[in-house]
């Protein structure tokens, strides 16, 4: 069969989302249009990331001082592309980006009902060595008829959709619209994201933990105890393996597919951890829960946080259901 060698019924991300939205009779295709523009941004960044890798190879021949600037350029470039693609969709009203200090309010002719929070280039410090990086996004619906900052300070559980794109050995977009998690791989020859990982479920328990252990000196007792349990299990189980890329998208993607935990805990130097609530913690927590895992801050369910500022940070522990359950028990006992 030709179909054995070549996929002939292509479930593109657009077709997939149109199918999903057709379940809602009131849907007018606005979400599909918004998502198409996000997808365009991801394809652009994917291509830019590949070109940056090539530029770096050339740079090695002598132009060393360009490296830092080039990397910065990619952060700024990705941000510009997403901001412009989102505004031109005509479906957004507020944009919050890691790279912009203030939220962007879209003016009336182009204004729509969706608020988008995003990290245009995640793990950007990894670009120079060709390690996987990504883009993270979350989508809310405006509450009233006029956009206010409160519209993007909603708890993560009220997100309409969340996702990330990983620029790795292949380019993958992982998306949830609140009805499970699906993964799409970019077919570069078609320029289309094709459904390759349908209904992703995270294993109930995993064999991997992922954390920047260089910060161990400053951890709280509970984090230290949990990580110690990963290495020296008290219940006779095998120790976990350590994997840490240092790009949240890559570390969370692996956690989603293989199971285990990813943590960026609080420490004495950063009492709120490092990762930002709106465009890192919330979208990834949303995806984890939708895949059957959990996300915990050390105090509460991550998606129940109500942010007060757009660039607020929070400690985060996310991953397999049973592994996060263990962390919650330690925090409940130790405080
Ligand atoms: P960004 O590149 O968007 O600023 O995000 C960096 C984040 C995240 O990707 C990763 O999980 C974390 O920084 C790694 O931090 P450490 O280098 O402190 O481990
Ligand atoms: Mn990031
Ligand atoms: Mn970033
Ligand atoms: Mn950054």
Describe the structure.
- The protein starts with a helix and ends with a helix.
- The longest helix has 30 residues, at 30-59.
- The chain is 35% helix and 21% strand.
- It is built from eight helices and 13 strands.
- The model is unreliable at 57-71 (pLDDT under 50).
- It has an eight-stranded mixed β-sheet, with helices on both faces. A five-stranded mixed β-sheet has the order 10-9-11-13-12, with helices on both faces.
- A hairpin with a 5-residue loop joins strand 6 and strand 7.
- The protein has helices spanning 2-5, 13-21, 30-59, 66-88, 221-231, 248-258, 277-290, 321-334; strands at 92-97, 104-105, 111-122, 133-141, 161-167, 171-176, 182-187, 192-197, 208-210, 241-242, 261-264, 294-296, 316-319.
- 45% of the residues are buried.
- The protein is an alpha+beta fold and 335 residues long.
- Helix 2 runs antiparallel to helix 3 and helix 3 runs antiparallel to helix 4 (66-88).
Explain the layout of strands and helices.
Layout (H helix, E strand, L loop, with lengths): L1 H4 L7 H9 L8 H30 L6 H23 L3 E6 L6 E2 L5 E12 L10 E9 L19 E7 L3 E6 L5 E6 L4 E6 L10 E3 L10 H11 L9 E2 L5 H11 L2 E4 L12 H14 L3 E3 L19 E4 L1 H14 L1
Parallel strand pairs: 1-3, 9-10, 9-11
Antiparallel strand pairs: 1-2, 3-4, 4-5, 5-6, 6-7, 7-8, 11-13, 12-13
Bound molecules: 2,5-anhydro-1,6-di-O-phosphono-D-glucitol and manganese (II) ion (MN) (3 copies).
């Amino acid at each position: 069969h030709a179909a054995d060698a070549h996929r002939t019924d292509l479930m593109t991300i657009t077709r997939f989302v149109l199918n999903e939205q057709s379940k809602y009779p009131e849907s007018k295709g606005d979400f599909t249009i918004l998502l198409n523009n996000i997808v365009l941004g991801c394809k652009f960044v994917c291509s830019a990331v590949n070109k940056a890798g090539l530029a770096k190879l050339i740079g090695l021949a002598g132009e060393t001082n360009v490296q830092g600037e080039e990397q910065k350029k990619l952060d700024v470039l990705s941000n510009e592309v997403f901001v412009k693609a989102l505004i031109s969709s005509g479906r957004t009203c507020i944009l919050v980006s890691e790279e912009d200090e203030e939220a962007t309010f879209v003016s009336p002719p182009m204004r729509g009902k969706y608020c988008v929070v995003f990290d245009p280039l995640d793990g950007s410090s990894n670009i120079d060595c060709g390690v996987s990086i990504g883009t993270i996004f979350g989508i809310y619906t405006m509450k009233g008829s006029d956009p206010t900052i409160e519209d993007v300070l909603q708890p993560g559980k009220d997100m309409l959709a969340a996702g990330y794109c990983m620029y790795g050995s292949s380019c993958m977009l992982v998306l949830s619209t609140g009805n499970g998690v699906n993964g799409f791989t970019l077919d570069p020859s078609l320029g289309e994201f094709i459904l390759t990982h349908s209904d992703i479920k995270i294993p109930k328990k995993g064999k991997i933990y992922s954390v920047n252990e260089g910060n161990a000196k400053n951890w709280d007792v509970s984090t230290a105890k949990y990580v110690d349990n990963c290495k020296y299990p008290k219940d006779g189980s095998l120790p976990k393996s350590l994997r840490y890329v240092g790009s949240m998208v890559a570390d969370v993607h692996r956690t989603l597919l293989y199971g285990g935990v990813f943590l960026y805990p609080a420490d004495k130097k950063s009492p709120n951890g490092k990762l930002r609530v709106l465009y890192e913690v919330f979208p990834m927590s949303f995806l984890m829960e939708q895949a059957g895992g959990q996300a915990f801050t050390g105090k509460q369910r991550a998606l129940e946080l109500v942010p007060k500022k757009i660039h607020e940070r929070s400690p985060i522990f996310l991953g397999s259901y049973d592994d996060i359950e263990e962390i919650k028990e330690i925090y409940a006992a130790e405080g």
